[in-house]
Specification:
By secondary structure, this protein is an alpha/beta fold. The protein folds into 3 domains: 22-266 and 441-467, Glycogen Phosphorylase B (Rossmann fold), CATH 3.40.50; 275-437, 3-Layer(aba) Sandwich (Rossmann fold); 470-504. The chain has 20 helices and 13 strands. The protein has helices spanning 2-22, 36-52, 88-94, 97-116, 119-127, 144-150, 192-212, 216-224, 231-235, 247-250, 275-282, 304-316, 345-349, 363-372, 385-394, 408-420, 422-437, 443-456, 472-475, 478-514, and strands at residues 26-30, 55-60, 71-75, 132-136, 154-158, 240-243, 259-261, 288-292, 320-324, 337-340, 354-359, 376-378, 398-400. It has a 7-stranded parallel β-sheet with strand order 3-2-1-4-5-6-7. It has a 6-stranded parallel β-sheet with strand order 10-9-8-11-12-13, with helices on both faces. Residues 1-22 have low confidence and may be disordered.
Length: 515
């Protein structure tokens, strides 16, 4: 038996090695927005495919420090499209819930315009025969013209959970009665008001996206010819969606088989901490907190009253705090706080003495906390962050505060609540972590399998819903409902007509008898 098993395993390795050596697909990829958190997910997917032996050419604002075999970069400038270290007021004004989709759409379309006007892009697609196009599922369909022009399958990456505004494009509508939309601050609607808000955001997302993305077709026809189809039609031809989510965190939902969860793909094994950070953590007797608002917002641009509340609250608690803060000039910095412009977040959260993660709710940091089993105190700022933290709260592994009403006392009381009830929050966080990591395949294995599956089956159109072939009238069964209503009206009319005849006949008969 052992010999047979050994022979089988050796044969498997040989076939696998032969496949890798003989099959190296040519993959073209695009990162449409200069955001570190988005790029971390996209890059993890691309490097997984490179490690598999595929050849990746990526159009990106992020350049590697060292060359990588089978990996080629076409640089696009970050410029004003950058979503790194933005000012607090800009985020509040420009990236608010009502404006985030138009802003993302504008950035996405600007990237398309720049790319399609770039000679290096056209030279690349003329000289290389690509097998697959990978782009981000963001806020425009303008980049779908690339796969259409090259006549190759397209895979999109949702760097957060499923985007509500794309659901009708893939005929994968999710019922807002029980599935939370992208912008809301609850894991699932629990009462009438939440269902109402959810429904409004569902309509808002679809209507606004259709409105702001109407220029995508003009972009496509300017660069790819006046007779190309509209962008939304091309987007429907997408083969597969890699979503940076997982049902153990984001709650189960009825998605089509071409939606593949890869939440946590960016996670890497934790490394050793620098000596000063390690000593700071190890020297704590009451516990350690890691505090960051991520790479998108510059914490030192937050309102002064909010920064003051943070500093006073951290000074009052008996725990050591690692705080990612861009400026080194902090008046009255508490002795229990270490400040750095950058920390090795993944390695810190993996340390066994770190008890709490105070975060804005960026999805990358959320998964790092989940993977390490660290409870989260969330203070969301914009976009999907409220929803990300709401999921953690739903599983009992964290709490959420509103930065608009945050005070020193509220923050102190909430931190003490979570730190003094470590067992409850830690136990829930640990259970969530175990479920999150208990999978038949790793996210990287899923990326390899499904990417190669799409190429092998020439777009794998059989994974897509046949509802894409229906008109809106047919999809909503309005034609059938109309027929049923008409039949019912005819029956009601006939019943009324017969009843009227019978009544008239009876009245005539009664009148004759009386006479």
């Amino acid at each position: 038996m052992q010999i047979k098993a050994s022979l089988f395993f050796s044969t498997y390795l040989l076939l696998n090695w032969s496949f890798r050596c003989s099959y190296g697909a040519m993959i073209l990829a695009l990162a449409p927005v200069a955001s570190t958190s988005h790029w971390n997910v996209i890059d993890a997917v691309l490097q997984t495919l490179v490690a598999r032996g595929h050849n990746v050419t990526v159009i990106t604002p992020f350049v590697k420090k060292y060359p990588i075999t089978n990996y080629t970069e076409i640089l696009i400038p970050k410029g004003k499209e950058s979503a790194i270290s933005m000012h607090w007021n800009y985020v509040m004004n420009e990236c608010s819930m009502g404006n985030s989709l138009p802003i993302l759409n504008e950035r996405h379309q600007n990237t398309c315009k720049f790319l399609f006007g770039l000679e290096e892009f056209w030279r690349t697609i003329r000289t290389i025969k690509f097998d697959l196009f990978i782009t981000e599922w963001l806020a425009s369909s303008c980049d779908s013209y690339v796969s259409y022009h090259l006549q190759i399958p397209q895979i999109v990456i949702a760097t957060s959970h499923v985007h509500t505004w794309y659901l009708d494009t893939f005929a994968s509508h999710l019922n807002p009665a029980y599935v939370s939309t992208f912008h809301v601050s609850f894991a699932m609607p629990m009462n009438f008001m939440q269902r109402f808000k959810n429904f409004v955001d569902y309509l808002y997302s679809h209507i606004v996206f259709r409105w702001v993305d109407r220029d995508a077709i003009d972009i496509g026809r300017k660069y790819f010819g006046p007779n190309v189809p509209d962008a939304n039609t091309l987007m429907k031809d997408t083969s597969l969606v890699f979503t940076n989510g997982h049902f153990t965190v984001d709650l189960p939902k009825p998605l089509l088989p071409n939606f593949i969860d890869i939440g946590g793909i960016h996670l890497k094994p934790a490394k050793s901490l620098s000596e000063d950070v390690k000593n700071f953590i190890d020297g704590s007797t009451n516990g350690v907190i890691y505090f960051t608002f991520g790479s998108t917002i510059k914490m030192d641009t937050a309102p002064l009253h909010l920064q003051k509340s943070f500093i006073e609250a951290l000074a009052e608690i008996p725990y050591r705090v690692l705080w990612k803060y861009e400026s080194s000039n902090i008046d009255h910095l508490p002795n229990n706080v270490m400040v750095r412009k950058w920390f090795s977040q993944r390695d810190i959260l993996a340390h066994k003495k770190v008890d709490l993660f105070i975060s804005h709710g960026g999805i990358s940091g959320i998964y790092e906390a989940i993977d390490s089993g660290v409870p989260v105190l969330g203070i969301p700022v914009f976009f999907d962050q409220s929803r990300n933290i709401a999921n953690i709260v739903h599983w009992g592994a964290g709490l959420m505060l509103d930065h608009n009403t945050l005070t020193k006392d509220i923050l102190v009381n909430t931190i003490n609540e979570m730190m003094q009830n470590k067992k409850r929050y830690k136990e829930n966080a640990t259970n969530l972590s175990q479920r999150f990591k208990d999978r038949p395949r790793t996210p990287k294995e899923d990326v390899v399998y499904w990417s190669e599956y799409v190429i092998k089956h020439k777009g794998a159109s059989h994974l897509k819903s046949t509802a894409l072939n229906l008109s809106l009238l047919e999809y909503l069964l309005l034609d059938i409902i109309t027929l049923i209503v008409l039949v019912l009206l005819v029956i009601i009319y006939l019943f009324y007509f017969i009843l009227k005849l019978v009544t008239r006949s009876m009245c005539t008969c009664f009148k004759q008898k009386r006479d």
